[in-house]
Amino acid sequence: MSNKHTSKSTKSDDISLDDLLVNLQKSLSRVSARSGDVPDDQSRSLIYGDVDFSIELKVDGEQDKLQVRKDGAVKLSISGKISIDIRDEEIE
Length: 92
Prior knowledge:
This protein is α+β, with helices and mostly antiparallel strands. The protein is built from two helices and four strands; from the N terminus they run αβαβββ. It has helices spanning 3-9, 17-36; strands at 15-16, 49-62, 65-68, 74-84. It has a four-stranded antiparallel sheet. A hairpin with a 2-residue loop joins β2 and β3 (65-68). The longest helix is centred in the N-terminal third of the chain and has 20 residues, at 17-36. The chain starts with a helix and ends in an 8-residue tail after the last strand. The relative contact order is 0.21.
């Protein structure tokens, strides 16, 4: 089997850049939600508002998406802010 076919078998592990960013936002929101369930008499740490991030990775273009790959042809560095959902509760 050639390397071309071998690399195709690992494509199921690939993730698109947009899915990666969505997963990052969801993960931060879950951390905030779990921290908010701690009883008032215990220490809490909430993540809310905007979170700065910076990611360096390699990607390949496929149709209209960027696929994140360990051996991608393009080295990409992105940074930005992700806004975390804020509940209707007031934060003291």
